[in-house]
Please model this.
Amino acid sequence: MGISECKIKESLKKDDTFKELHDAGKINPEPGLIEHSIKNIQEAKVSGHFEKLASYLDEIVKGPVEPLVEESAKSKTSTENVELAEAYRTIDSLKKILQQERANQELREKEQKDKEALNSMKQKKEFEEVIERQISFIDQLVKDLSLIHICRCRRAI
Model:
């Protein structure tokens, strides 16, 4: 085994790291890109362009990871923003419903007080009428008793 073959095998071990990153889901390149990249690495190592290809692979590894993470974060953020907006709308609608219910409760309480006041006035009027009839009845009894007493006095004379 020559020196170049040893270097190729050693660098192929580094290629496994790229595959491991891909398999672990840390990078998600386009289909066939891994195989193409490995082939380019092998060709570059043989031809001595390994450094250029290594920087290219670094860009590939760094490139797709950041947009995917960024896109995932943006997606999560936008989802959370939508949920937050929906929660605010729900809170606003619940506040409006609460205000309406409070207003309705105040109206019902006012109506109840008015109804009770009206019933009290009506009941007071009825009691006053009953009292007037009883007073009138008592006055009539007193007159009748006076007449009876006067009649007895006249008979006695």
User: Anything to note?
Assistant: Residues 1-9 have pLDDT under 50 and may be disordered. The radius of gyration is 51 Å. The CA atoms of residues 16 and 38 lie 9 Å apart.
